[in-house]
Amino acid sequence: MARTRLYRHGVLEAENFPVADVSDHLSDPNATVWLDMCSPTEEDLASISEELGLHELAVEDAVHEHQRPKLDRYDSHAFLTVYAVRLDKESGVLALSEAAAFVTARALVTVRKDEQFDMDAVLSRWDSSSDLTKSGVGFLVHGLMDYVVDSHFDAVQALDEQIEALEDMVFADQVDHADMQRRSLYLRKSLVVLRRVVLPMRELVNALMRRDLHIVDDTLMPYFQDVYDHVLRATEWTESLRDLVATIRETQLSLQANRLNTIMKKVTSWAAVIAVPTAITGFYGQNVPYPGFQQAWGFWLSTLAILVISGSLYLLFKRRDWL
User: What one GO molecular function would you report for this record (predicted)?
Assistant: First the structure.
């Protein structure tokens, strides 16, 4: 079901009116119209695309999924694709919600690919900034972009908290290495996905602020500058977290290697200590005469040799921290 809104002279006059009335409202030069559609087909967009003069390539991109974040310019309108994101804090998996928008002189048409894109959050931003409604379509675009960029920023912040928890796990006494490797892999995947949708936003927001597009007026310019600042911060944060996850993984492998070396060193040291009585008793177990053969002093001599040599090896290894 489509959702609609009508602003006239910067005042919200109507909402959820029939799509067929959009053309009537656009005949008024003082009107600004918003139309939202969820999972439409090209046939669903046919009537409105003819009314607004939407380019067929833009309509095709709006219907098909997995477009890259971008801003395309056409003669009568601009077309943009953005992604809102959300992070599952339990698993560390990042989910994407794709949305497209046609930006004309007096209308904004949003096309959501699924219900996961929270359009109610966008509406709340519009309602909380009613003093900016006189800026027309630019005001609507700002609310949309503000929601999308805030979702990026929230995801980066949540990932930062997840990575801090991962850091604590690295130096814990009891570590579930399988769980840690799984979480590390999921976080790296999420950062790769987030980077893929965050990095193009710099160019996208910067292009929206260009004067020749006539979308952002002087009133809205500081607000778009604030959105652009959030984009830069999210981008830089994402890059730093990506390096941090790689460092954590390298640290984990180094600690595992050090623990393995310590264990091998202890096992080898104990094997050397145990080898002394084995060698001595093996020597005295020969079926040939030797000094002390079948004599009591021979038994005590071998016992003394075992104790002295084994004790000396133990003290030597202990002093070198091998045991």
Answer: cobalt ion binding
